[in-house]
């Protein structure tokens, strides 16, 4: 019993020393700030591990949403790493546009160093002259409209593989359309009688070059001390942009939880990174350099529109809408609990407008 009691006493003493050290360090840092602005609100954090336990397992985007609605702009400690969580379009604009030069760093993670050439690629390279040269090469020589069009034959060979990868996104979209058939039928005439544009428009030649877009990233860090909405943000603070919560902000969207495709009809909201209510490709200096190309997004739209254009879709006899359910996940596309099985009824061939692909392009 004596050795066990001794080990328990040592453990308590160690925890007491660590806690006292953390408290003294926190008080000293506050005193050192002097007249500087206070950091953003932060939920209570444990010594050493910070707020990691409050995130736990499961859907981190929902837990960040809950914390943000309780505290506003968040300042978390993920272990020893200070982290700011952005959950509103206005703060995202301040971070990705107004102070883009400050929040353009990239965390140097051990995993990235081991897998991505020591963080020397365009995605994880530190901000500086080398990164600017890499991005310039990518934008001018790899992702220009002329270069992209030169790979057309190769892209056609890879379409089958790419369709398999985006199957989850299409399946989810079809599930939403089946659940909202009244709204779906309103868009069929638009798919079957779309406005023709020049074929080269589909290749991106009529759009601004990728480098002209103002964009951002959801995993960046600060390169210097700064002030954000009257809050002090120290250098090397990591930045998490909860785009999921921004897309469900009631101040930016009407009925954000409802399936309302009409909200994007006759709207200037796009995915170029200029409207910070909708930033699927991020924005700013660290935004996706191929944002003007957006091939996967265009392919999803093209496939989905073709399916709506050529078929009427119904559930099998005896199956109810409640029989399939979208499963929320932290990945790029949500999935379904069970496979989506639909009955496709072919429509008459398009004669007035020709092939659906040409109409859409």
Q: What does the model show?
A:
This protein is an alpha+beta fold and 361 residues long. It has one domain: Cytochrome P450 (Cytochrome p450), CATH 1.10.630.10. The chain has 13 helices and ten strands. The strands form four sheets. A four-stranded mixed β-sheet has the order 1-2-6-3. A hairpin with a 2-residue loop joins strand 4 and strand 5. Helix 10 crosses helix 12. The longest helix has 32 residues. It is globular, with a radius of gyration of 25 Å. The relative contact order is 0.14. The C terminus is likely disordered.
Write the SSE topology:
Elements: H1 2-33, H2 52-55, H3 60-71, E1 74-78, E2 81-86, H4 89-98, H5 110-115, H6 129-142, H7 145-150, H8 152-165, H9 167-179, H10 181-192, E3 219-221, E4 226-228, E5 231-233, E6 238-241, H11 243-246, H12 295-310, E7 311-314, E8 326-327, E9 335-336, E10 343-346, H13 356-360
Parallel strand pairs: 2-6
Antiparallel strand pairs: 1-2, 3-6, 4-5, 7-10, 8-9
Cofactor: heme
Binding site for heme: 288
Protein name: Cytochrome P450 71A1
């Amino acid at each position: 019993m004596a050795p066990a009691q001794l080990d328990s006493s040592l453990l308590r003493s160690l925890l007491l020393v660590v806690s006292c050290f953390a408290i003294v360090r926190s008080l000293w840092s506050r005193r050192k700030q002097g007249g500087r602005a206070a950091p953003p609100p932060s939920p209570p954090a444990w010594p050493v591990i910070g707020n990691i336990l409050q995130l736990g397992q499961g859907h981190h985007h929902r837990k960040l949403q809950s914390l943000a609605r309780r505290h506003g702009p968040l300042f978390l400690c993920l272990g020893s790493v200070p982290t700011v969580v952005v959950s509103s379009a206005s703060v995202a604009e301040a971070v990705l546009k107004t102070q883009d030069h400050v929040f353009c760093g990239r965390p140097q993670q051990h995993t990235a160093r081991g897998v991505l050439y020591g963080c020397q690629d365009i995605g994880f390279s530190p901000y500086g002259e080398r990164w600017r040269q890499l991005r310039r090469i990518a934008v001018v020589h790899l992702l220009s409209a002329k270069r992209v069009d030169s790979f057309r034959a190769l892209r056609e060979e890879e379409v089958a593989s790419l369709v398999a990868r985006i199957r989850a996104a299409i399946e989810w979209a079809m599930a939403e359309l089946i659940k909202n058939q009244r709204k779906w039928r309103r868009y069929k005439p638009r798919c079957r009688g779309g406005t023709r544009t020049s074929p080269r428009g589909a290749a991106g030649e009529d759009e601004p070059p990728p480098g002209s877009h103002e964009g951002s990233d959801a995993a960046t860090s600060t390169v210097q001390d700064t002030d954000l909405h009257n809050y002090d943000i120290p250098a090397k603070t990591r930045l998490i942009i909860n785009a999921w919560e921004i897309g469900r902000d009631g101040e930016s969207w009407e009925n954000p939880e409802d399936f309302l495709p009409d909200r994007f009809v006759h709207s200037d909201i796009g995915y170029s990174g200029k409207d910070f209510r909708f930033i699927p490709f991020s924005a700013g200096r660290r935004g996706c350099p191929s944002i003007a190309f957006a091939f996967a997004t265009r392919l999803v739209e093209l496939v989905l529109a073709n399916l709506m254009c050529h078929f009427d879709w119904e559930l099998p006899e005896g199956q109810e809408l409640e029989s399939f359910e979208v499963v929320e996940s932290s990945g790029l596309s949500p999935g379904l609990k069970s496979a989506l099985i639909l009955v496709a009824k072919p429509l008459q061939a398009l004669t007035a407008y020709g092939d659906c692909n040409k109409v859409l392009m």
